[in-house]
Amino acid sequence: MQVSFSTVLSASIVGLKVEPVRVEADVSNGLPSFSMVGYLSSEVKEAAERVRTAIRNSGLDFPAKKTVINLSPANVKKRGAAFDLPIAVAILVSLGKIRQKDVGGMLVIGELGLDGRVRKVPGILPILLEAKENGIGKCLVPKENAPEGALVEGVSVIGVETLRDTVEYLNGNYAIEPERYHDAYEEEGEDVAMPDYGDICGQGAVKRATEVAVAGGHNLLLVGPPGSGKSMTAKRIPTIFPPMTREESMEVTKVYSVLGMIDSERPLIRKRPFRSVHHTASRAALVGGGAIPAPGEISLAHAGVLFLDELPEFSKSVLEVLRQPLEDGQVHIARAHGTYQFPANFMLVGAMNPCPCGCYPDMNRCTCTPGQIQHYLSKLSQPFLDRMDICVEAPKVEYESLSGKAVEESSAAIRERVCRAREIQNVRYDGSKIMSNAMLETKEIERYCVLGEEEERMMRQAFSSLALTARTYHKILKVARTIADLDGAERIGVVHLREAIGYRTLDKKYWGR
Q1: Has residue 393 got a pLDDT over 60?
Q2: Of all helices (H) and strands (E), which one includes residue 151?
């Protein structure tokens, strides 16, 4: 009995990790059948019917023979429809329609429609980055995924629209130029009007606190009555962030790629994410997870902002799961079949009213009982509050601010100062993994946040009077370092430290702990 065996390289996404997969096909004489093995999910098993029908509808012969497909390694579960195209190619190699040497060293991935069209799949960017690491120089991907794949330099990305085109290309009968990445993809639509800090009347202290928070990558809590501009302030934070580096853009794009959230026309994400999460969100939606672990909102906010409005309305258990990612900058999800890790280096911005009616501590207007106020505020635990570097009050906006003709400072002016402060930090931490002052660990704090005698006395007094924890002590020093950077000062001074301490008095005012 004559046996025809073939192999095609492909890959599988497990969380954000890429597992190389070898698609093996054996087509031989025998009782007609189509078997697939290799620890497959139900959607991969369904590929048998899709592939068989797509081959026939592409005008190619699929004789009635015994067909066995193996996806190796067998200890890694294969999911998704991205194995359709490599399975079809492997079968056609076994049938002699394509030569084995023409697919050697090439990675193939894509979903097939019953009509033979090759459809886009998620996760192309991390897969091609892994292919490059493994020395694979050519990748065959769906045409819609080609611009995304072209982000990976040093890999020839061939975009195909149909199975027939794939066969003709591999046989040398049809020329397809490798996809090339063009900055023009990103330049389009860059001039879309954005909200500006110049739109916010008054609230100078809130704007200053926001500027400090963005300059150092610090978490920010805004407390104030309804209509005081908390949400307006938060939603304008992306307009004062420094531009993303190429490395940051690629990291963020990888996360969005795995979830299939890439714009085919502008694949590289250049604008920092701003994720506004509703208080009904579950823990899995926020940190990621599920039966098949996937990134959550905090990973989608990587290198950007995660905004939680009406903070006390969130379930306490949901807020508590943020504590570990806020410290580590990563999410770790453990399952019986493995551990998954997602990036989570984001700036947390929370907004809340001081009580259910929003008028506390104005007891002439507040309709809440002391018990209601205490219950409302107690939804935020002390460990969670300790992780908010800056807490600032957004007071009620006065009539004069709304009716006056004062020119408010624009986002562009604030952003210029933020960028200068970030550049100082880039130079200071050059050669390390530290991107901003908020990422400083204890040893780095001792090195870069040195206090003079007068500052030391002030800090000692604040530590005692405000009953600070070790964590809040370090956060005050990091915020003071950022304020000094905004001033262009080499050392932390009294004025910088005083402002930083002021950002830790609000939680004592409302929570008294």
Answers
A1: yes
A2: none
